[in-house]
């Protein structure tokens, strides 16, 4: 295996397998796959792997009041809501396909925690704007002009 590819694998393993990564842990992972990393490289990778993920840009722009208005319009603000035909579920009325497309794992959107529903709605908004909510999406107002 070429060295750059091995370094990439080490990087990916370090990022995906730890939530709080130290330079020592980076060295352990690197040694496990036979790659040498410098102290600076280990510290840099550990710093990157330990950062919390950033919220999608568009989701950061929408106000919390906007999200509350969207939830109220879509489901009456009920995180456990299910449409009469059973196709749309949760506070943001996800269908199963859209739900699975914006997060790990499937499951029932209406059974997910409010935090998980909010997170996936913000991801969806960052990807597609207001389009998934053709009527209620008008409630999503940006924090910036």
Q: If you had to describe this structure to a student in words, what would you say it looks like?
A:
The chain has 145 residues and is mainly alpha-helical. Helix 1 packs across helix 3. It starts with a helix and ends in a 17-residue tail after the last helix. 26% of the residues are buried.
Keyword list:
single chain, 145 residues, 0% strand
Q: Roughly what percent helix?
A: 40-55%
Q: Return the string of H and E elements.
A: HHHHHHH
**pLDDT < 50 runs, ≥5 residues:** none
Tally of helical segments: 7
Under the CATH scheme, which class of the largest domain? Mainly Alpha
Question: How do the helices and strands line up, and which of them pair or pack?
Answer:
Blueprint: H1 3-17, H2 23-32, H3 39-50, H4 57-61, H5 64-75, H6 96-101, H7 114-128
Quick structural overview:
This protein has 145 residues and is mostly helical.
